[in-house]
Amino acid sequence: MSDDDWFERALREEDDAEAEPTDAETETPGEPTEQGGESADDGDTEHREAGTDTGTASASRSSDDSPEDDFAADVSDEPFATNFAEAFENAPMPDIDGTDGEFGGPSGGGVDDDFWSSSGSQRQSPQFDDEEFESDIDRIDIGVDGLDEMILGGVPKRSLMVTIGSAGTGKTTFGLQFLYKTLRDGGSGVYITLEESRRRILDTADEKGWDFSGYEADGKLAIVDLDPVEMANSLSSIRNDLPRLVEDFGADRLVLDSVSLLEMMYDHPSKRRSEVFDFTRSLKDAGVTTMLTSEADQTNPYVSRHGIVEYLSDAVFVLQYVRPDDFRETRLAIEIQKIRDANHSRETKPYELTDDGISVYRQANIF
Fold first, then answer.
1. Mean pLDDT (whole number) for 121-125
2. How many domains does one find in the chain?
3. Taking the complete model, does pTM exceed 0.90, yes or no?
């Protein structure tokens, strides 16, 4: 199998996708239920974990086996009928210099009242020191209101970031909003999903008024839906080709949702760490600003499920539920765990998932 086989099987052509809905579009056991398109159904996670043995077996098959034959045999029955290579190749290409896609040429919601302390007294948020920040590093905004103000000067371009959170905290919405920022500013982006179908991602973004369908039609956006087993089997080829493909597409930002499903394909911790490390390094080599999403550990909301990606990333954002002692209201809170080469607030701030995406309330306190 050639290195480009994975690329040539990935993104379904739009006409075929519209004519024949995939199984993922007609049968979605873990249909997202929360605002913003993020799945809040823990059963979906359990369903994917139940399939881990199958994925592991596929990812660790001997060199005599032919994964290409396996996928060719049942590709018509899979919800992800194509792989990353074909997806990217068939994606509309951005019109960089007016060459028609050819390269080489010239709150819907908000906080009505301030948050209150458990004693009933209103607490004011300490002011973040907005001192002058001078740097020669090119910087960008995430695209999330309130959060960008917590990062003095912005995140360095070409950073590798990860958003960690449990089900229902808005990880997918965070990734879509991050990508929307560059699209509305005239840039281009790639969204790789291991959890949802391409159609589902487009519908989720379009419902928020972000017009991903239009950006895709204009060649500014490529959405790639991959089965995590397929990605694990093709990971070596993806690592080799991704930098070139990102450069050819002209992508400014890339989102992978979620890296946890890729990590689940490997049983042995050292193998898992090695594969994830090599993959994240290929993203850095591609020179694209990248956002990964990751499931939080079931016992600790501040770390990822396998505790790997936060050490390999340049920036870590933690999304979590906060349940006060009086049980009056379960709130959502965000924390910036780290950003290399950037000064940032270390406060935990409330946020809401609204019809317009995620809004962080920098002036409010959780307790």
1. 43
2. 1
3. no
